[in-house]
Amino acid sequence: MLQKEYWDSVSPTKNFTTPFQTDEFAEHVTKDAHIADIGCGYGRTMAGLYGMGYRSLVGFDISSGMIERGRAQFPFLDLRVMEEGRIDLADGSADAVILFAVLTCIPGDANQERLISEIRRVLKPGGILYVNDFLLNSDARNIERYEKYLDRYGTYGVFELPEGAVLRHHAEEYLRELLRDFTQLRYEHLTFTTMNGNRSNGFYYIGRK
User: Dihedral of the CA atoms 111, 104, 171, 161 (nearest 10)?
Assistant: First the structure.
């Protein structure tokens, strides 16, 4: 199953639980900032920011099902379908970009690099990038599935869920290279409950262009 088809199929019922670090984000991004949420899903994070007083918000997601759900659930949000990997914003127009549990849904290095390049394009000089995502785990269940799918995807940490999604957990050294063009302001380890109710290593990162 293709990634878009999977997320469209689960869009009516799938609820995300990973916590957004609102206080840390607010330390670096003012209420009048123009914020783009890339891979916004049904707009959960944006709705939380709206409730905090942020108003210049736009969200993009490849799943039209997620966008339709978000528009119905949060009609006050600007939610748009993302086409062909391009963020439909002008160069240097965003004060901040949120990438919340999105890299995990992009198994390949090249596609992750392209997305980060697009984010750099739309961010203003000095703009803020907030990333929240999953790290490699060392428990037997995860090691088994990392090894099971290594030959198929060529990257340790990529695996398939029984329902069809392809996901990725990341090595920290890889993430440092991926985000090499940003100045790190904050990096913290977290433990997440995944969308299927399991525990996983994770992190949040705040960087400056």
Answer: -110
